Amino acid sequence: MATTAEDVRRIALSLPDSSEKLAWGMPTFRVGGGATGKNGKVFAALADDDTSIGVKCPREDREELIAAEPEKFFVRPGHDDNYAWLRVRLAAVEDAAELRSILTDSWLQAAPRRLVAAHPELDRRGAQGPVTAE
After folding, report:
1. Which residues, listed in sequence order, are joined to residue 6 by a DSSP beta bridge?
2. Residue 33: left (phi > 0), alpha (psi -120 to 50), or beta?
3. Most buried by CB count within 10 Å: which residue of 9, 52, 91, 116?
């Protein structure tokens, strides 16, 4: 079952201190900054056609994720090269649980330490590192 932009919105906004803000002509989801997200950090962004999302991902992990699941993960050459971001095709995400895992991992990378510490139930990274792909 493919996930949708509405699934992204619902899950992203369910994460602590998250908000939605239009930027670069697309919906972005931010952590911190209160209800407006004015000074919050972006942890996800919907593509303008609602078929994919951009999420935070350590650059050193991107190649492995793309190699393992190229139908799901990708980068836009020339645009994503210098950023710790990965793109995810929503049609390839198995279900809402997998989408929640991807968005939560991105949220954990963007959230202030004090907020992550206040929500240990969300931090499953432990010593293994990010949980972007399960």
Report:
1. none
2. left
3. 52
- Nearest Cα neighbor of 14 from 36, 29, 33 is 29
Q: Which of 72, 45, 75, 47 is nearest to 62 (CA)?
A: 75
96-110 helix and 5-14 helix, angle to the nearest 10 degrees: 50
> Over the stretch 35-65, which tens digit does the pLDDT of each residue have?
665 779 999 999 989 999 999 999 899 999 9
d(CA 107, CA 116): 9
Residues linked to residue 30 through DSSP beta bridges, in sequence order: 19, 42
Q: Write phi, then psi, for 23 (nearest 5 degrees).
A: -150, 145
